[in-house]
Amino acid sequence: MKSLEKFMRKLEPTHESKWAKFHPVWDSLYTFAFTPGETTKKGSHIRDGIDLKRTMFMVIVALIPCLLFGIYNTGHWHYFAEGTAGGFMDHFGDKLIYGLLKVLPIVIVSYGVGLGVEFIFCIRNKHAIQEGFLVTGMLIPLIVPADIPLWMVAVATVFAVVLGKEVFGGTGMNIVNIALTARAFLFFGYPTMMSGDKVWMSGIGDMAKENIPEGVTGATQLGELASFTGAPEDFAHASISAFESAWPIWESFMGIIPGSIGETSVLAILIGAGLLLYTGIGSWKIMVSFVLGGLAVGALAQATAVNPYMELSALNHMVIGGFAFGAVFMITDPVSAAQTSTGKYIYGFLGGALSITIRVFNGAYPEGVMMAILFMNVMAPMIDHYVIQSNIKRRLKRLKTA
User: Fold this and answer.
1) For the chain, which residues make up each domain, given as ranges?
2) Nearest Cα to 320, choosing from 215, 247, 238?
3) Which residues neighbour 290 within 8 Å (Cβ) at sequence distance 6 or greater?
4) What is the pLDDT of residue 231?
5) Of the candidates 116, 108, 168, which has an alpha carbon nearest to the alpha carbon of residue 140?
6) What are the distances in angstroms from CA 51 to CA 132, 189, 345?
7) 200-230 burial: b if 16+ Cβ within 10 Å, else e
8) What is the CA angle 85-102-225, rounded to 5?
9) Between the CA of residue 247 and those of 23, 103, 129, 243, 316, what are the distances in Å?
10) Which terminus has fewer CB within 10 Å in the chain: N or C?
11) DSSP state letter for 280
12) How far is CA 172 from CA 180, 332, 335, in A?
């Protein structure tokens, strides 16, 4: 490592060099591998064992279980559509290889395009590159279908980085979650590639032209649930019962279901959540309140059901769609989330409640997590403002009565 560090030091562009404007690029690569050699000599400083780069790296480690399971699940449902999936361990190696060949290019395009845009902006603005995209570059592939065209991933990434972050000033200044901005762009710009029954199983669109087994579709659980909307009341009850029998909660929890690459397995997501909570990087206040908000609305909807969506149990809502992934990795984004302690409870609870509200009342859009979190991102500063104002009024009142 010493020789590599010396080699990197020799490549450092100096201020007098014609390559001086590329110093932020060199600095990002050097500091990713080595601790900077500069130290402070005087004055007051905060010294901590973890910085932004290490924080982002820890989140990526927490996402690895979701990525690995997503690779397997992509291969599993491809072979399921062919009629040869078998059990969990059947064709295990083939499933992993197929999934890797589908998922890895999406990850490469996401990182390549996103970091390319960041390098361009840091060179243009003459500032050091920041590490925020290290996590975003992994999140984007995990929240899209495995069959999404790579050019769409590239366009969505450029849109999210430029209009979702750089126009606001870069890392730490964005008002909405960058990865969800990319997904929203894809959902509204290319809806046929983000919804429907030919999207969520890799290769099913091509198989449909050949010998796809009868009755096999690529619809997600929520996609199937959407088909029940508007059904007569007696048919709706039967449909929900059949739905819950076809998709048991335990199966949904494990994640052997169609869906976005990294969102299906609640078990994998919980492993990542445990790491984030153990290291103190993730906010348990937001996670717990998000789940409580979703459970509260889910239970209320089931008790007052007037449509098929509302009849689904609150617990079932927690393990299908992107709810669990949103609770752990999206709503907790430290930049776009509420910052005050009380505000985090309010922010998380309203986010979870709004997710299920959109899901059960909007038949055209059964997955409400993305829109709910983006909306709460915008509302977060207002929540913090009123929490702070409430604290000020309470303290002023104590002073007047003292």
Assistant:
1) 52-193, 283-402
2) 247
3) 326, 327, 331, 348, 349, 351, 352, 355
4) 45
5) 108
6) 12, 36, 26
7) bbbbbbebeeeebeeebbbbbbbbbbbebee
8) 60
9) 53, 25, 45, 6, 9
10) C
11) T
12) 16, 14, 6
Indicate the pTM of the whole model. 0.82
- Tell me which amino acid residue 217 is: T
CA-to-CA separations, 214 to 204, 207, 218, in angstroms, rounded: 12, 11, 12
Quick one: pLDDT at residue 88? 80
DSSP category for residue 35: -
**Amino acid identity for residue 199 in this structure:** V
Residue type, 157: T
In this predicted structure, what is the pLDDT of residue 143? 94
Q: Report the C-alpha gap between 391 and 21 in whole angstroms.
A: 47
Residue with tokens 């099913």: 204
Residue 72's closest CA among 89, 52, 53, 49? 89
Q: Is the CB of residue 78 less than 8 Å from the CB of residue 203?
A: yes
| pLDDT at position 42 | 58
> Tokens in use for 114?
């996103």
User: Quick one: tokens of 271?
Assistant: 């492993």
- Asked if residue 301 lies in contact with residue 333, where contact means CB atoms within 8 angstroms, the answer is no
Residues of the chain with pLDDT under 50: 208-209, 213-215, 229-238
For residue 295, what pLDDT is reported?
96
Ordered DSSP codes for 130-178 = -STHHHHHHHHHHTS-TT--HHHHHHHHHHHHHHHTGGGTSTTT-SS-H
Residue 277 is predicted with a pLDDT of: 94
